[in-house]
Design a protein that fits this description.
Two copies of one chain form a homodimer.
Chain A (H helix, E strand, L loop, with lengths): L1 E5 L3 H12 L3 E6 L5 H10 L4 E5 H7 L2 E4 L6 H6 L9 E4 L4 E2 L6 E2 L9 H8 L4 E5 L5 H4 L12 E5 L2 H14 L6 E3 L5 H7 L1 H11 L4 E7 L1
Parallel strand pairs in A: 1-2, 1-4, 2-3, 4-5, 5-8, 9-10
Antiparallel strand pairs in A: 6-7, 8-9
């Protein structure tokens, strides 16, 4: 599958590397066409499946687009792609964390009555936005089997069922068990998944270098 | 131990009943001294360990006070107790959920940069506020062994270590395993535990009548 990844940071790199391992064609996108981190990504993989371009080029390339930009700037970054993303799946993994406060908080415009996922869906009504992969470190997200033999939970929300089904396919390739992918409904579920982060941040402070996640258990 | 429970609803009843089973002396407190639900609680138990009084009487009675009032009115309800709760442990199990919105949200004054737990601590600086037992239905909270043989997680936060230790003791009597009680730090952790509720509500909608909770898994 042709996949665009918007964002050249650690999250974008982890996603891109894993997707290439799984046989996909990945174009990483950044603000400038000569971003050293983007060019390094291509060099590292030395594969025809790895390429780099601007946000606009990566957005045009992908059938599926990952939003792996910094949550604070995600909406503005997507605008640089200069497209309406019509018919495309945008998998939003961004988080609205504000680490300038003590304790960390959520960026107020995305807290409680809004979320990054919903904001992207509103900005691009013809796109199919799926929120997922945001409730743990991405090192675990792209390789869930390193914890509890892969038996822990991942959440998902979005308005389009076919987009969620395709996203589940990519997650299964990462190693997620289908029964552990919890679809909490439409894109307003992104609020729930972003609000949860504050608890995840507290646990991160407590657990230090440990890899962790939650497993939902029900009767 | 002498325990006051502020609130005569289902949560107060579940807590009171379980605490009496565990040998504690419980005074349930309500707004009026002749509240039928409070008098029913006493009648149901027909035990010298069960009593009922006003918020003020229950607050004077207990060494430990459970705040089991409706989150929306918790601060105002506590004021009716007409005490500073100096030196007392207040175990706050209340939640700031607003079900008048679709989807449900958090009451804005308690969301992201505040919480019910912190607000109580601010209102009563000489009290020892512990937030816990708020992240699942109280039917499960007072009897965790009915799910996964009791192997799932409960969070706790508060500024006073001895108050948290005593609270852990009560939780252990309920059936919680000590290793599953996750202390996420000072009372600002109440934010994290209250924000998580929106995710719990989404799961409740999805899972229907199932009893559920999360188990934290770490490497």
């Amino acid at each position: 599958m042709k996949i665009g990844i918007l964002g050249t940071g650690e999250v974008g790199n982890l996603l891109g590397t894993r997707l290439i391992e799984n046989g996909h064609r990945v174009m990483m996108g950044g603000r400038e066409s000569n971003n050293p981190k983007g060019l390094d990504f291509v060099k590292k993989h030395s594969s025809e499946n790895a390429s780099y371009g601007t946000f606009a080029e990566a957005s045009a390339f992908g059938e599926i687009i990952f939003n792996a930009t910094n949550g604070r700037f995600a909406l503005a970054a997507l605008k640089l792609a200069d497209t309406d993303f019509a018919g495309k799946i945008i998998i939003d993994v961004a988080n609205p964390l504000d680490f300038t406060t003590t304790p960390p908080t959520l960026i107020s415009e995305f807290a409680n009555t809004n979320s990054i996922g919903e904001s992207i869906q509103k900005q691009y009504p013809e796109a199919k936005v799926v929120k997922t992969l945001n409730t743990f470190g991405m090192v675990l997200g792209v390789n869930p089997k390193q914890l509890n033999n892969g038996d822990h939970s991942i959440f998902m929300s979005g308005n389009d069922e076919s987009a969620k089904a395709k996203t589940k396919g990519l997650l299964a390739e990462f190693g997620w068990r289908i029964e552990n992918i919890i679809d909490i409904g439409d894109i307003t579920g992104a609020r729930a998944m972003e609000l949860y982060l504050i608890l995840a941040v507290r646990m991160k402070i407590l657990f230090g270098a440990s890899i962790f996640n939650v497993k939902v258990i029900k009767s």
